[in-house]
Design goal:
The protein has 13 helices and 15 strands. The strands form three sheets. The chain has a seven-stranded mixed β-sheet, with helices on both faces. Strands 4-3-5-6-7-13 form a six-stranded parallel β-sheet, sandwiched between helices. It has 327 residues and is of the alpha/beta class. Helix 2 crosses helix 11, helix 3 crosses helix 4 and helix 5 packs parallel to helix 6. The N terminus is likely disordered.
Length: 327
């Protein structure tokens, strides 16, 4: 059984135990897992990918490392308290999945190493000083799904070429929201699309946004990478189905749950990289010296069942490009 110790606080921040001290005590190093989602379904599989990455670095759960899991189950506002629990438990390293998880972990400690997997620019989000030299106690993997928004529009346009009016959902809370909107509108103009930018950061905002889309005669929807939209994917999919809107998002979970299409970096590969980095830190490397990695593996998922319900004939060429076709 892993022994717990009393916590010593210095200036409100926990002082992390060095690995050598833990070894002398005979205790296993502890990875704190912080995730805004649930352990069931797809995210359980991603946790397995994380453990695979750990094993590639020589660490196997229950053998020479312990993992303390903290799942917010879609309640993002719980993340700061869950991060504080991990700090209180004096974990050796925190693995934060998602931007909001990473920010919660960063706010909770300046001493415990943190590895993150995020879908936005970690420099713009204030997580690290630079990609090559992170500095501080954070490093990790940047999926950069925000930059894939233009490709999502292109693929959506290929599926519904007759649609001239589209909308994009953006969370205005994000620091990069304005630049993201400008880039997507520029991409839409090149495609000959009239793109409406709609903001949403609450469930009520989503209902309002879809009502506006109906008034604007929007014919298709792109959903940007944001933890809020991911946590409300079922609500968004239901609203899109109610309004008969073809929708694309960055997450395969959305396509699997009934969305028309998803295009983004491979979550499984990103989580495996996250586990590998956590293992390197367990071996003694410092986050400040580990450059932020970027995922380079992308996935296109098409839901043919949803396409049929929307009356969309998916070209064979796009089906052949897809990494997975859901029937």
């Amino acid at each position: 059984m892993r022994r717990r110790t009393f916590i010593t606080l210095l200036g409100g921040a926990a002082v992390a135990w060095p690995l050598a001290a833990q070894a002398q005590q005979g205790a296993l190093p502890v990875v704190g897992w912080l995730n805004s989602e649930t352990p069931e379904g797809g995210y359980g599989l991603l946790a397995a990918a994380f453990r695979q990455g750990l094993s590639e670095s020589g660490f196997v759960e229950g053998r020479n490392v312990t993992i303390e899991y903290r799942w917010a189950r879609g309640q993002i506002d719980r993340l700061p308290a869950l991060a504080a629990e991990l700090v209180h438990d004096r974990v050796t390293v925190i693995a934060a999945a998602g931007t909001v998880s990473a920010r919660a972990a960063k706010a909770a400690t300046t001493t415990i190493p943190i590895v993150f997997s995020v879908a936005t620019d970690p420099v713009a989000m204030g997580l690290v000083a630079s990609l090559n030299r992170p500095g501080g106690n954070l490093t990790g993997v940047a999926n950069l799904m925000v930059e894939l928004g233009q490709k999502q529009l292109e693929l959506l346009h290929q599926l519904v070429p007759a649609v001239a009016i589209m909308a994009v959902l953006i969370n205005p809370i994000l620091p990069a929201a304005e630049s993201q909107a400008r880039d997507l509108q520029a991409a839409a103009r090149k495609l000959g699309i009239d793109l409406h930018v709609l903001h949403a950061s609450t469930e009520r905002d989503l209902d309002t946004a879809f009502a506006k889309m109906a008034d604007m005669r929007v014919g298709a929807l792109a959903i940007t990478a944001d933890a809020f939209f991911l946590s409300r994917r079922e609500q968004i999919i239901a609203l899109a189905a109610r309004h008969s809107l073809p929708a694309t998002s960055p997450w395969r979970e959305a396509a699997a749950a009934g969305g028309l299409m998803s295009y983004g970096t491979s979550d499984a590969d990103g989580y495996r990289q996250l586990g590998s980095y956590a293992g390197r830190i367990l071996k003694g490397e410092k986050p400040a010296n580990l450059p932020v990695q970027q995922s380079t593996k992308f996935e296109l998922i098409i839901n043919l069942k949803t396409a049929k319900a929307l009356g969309i004939d998916v070209p064979l060429q796009i089906q052949q490009l897809a990494d997975e076709v859901i029937e």
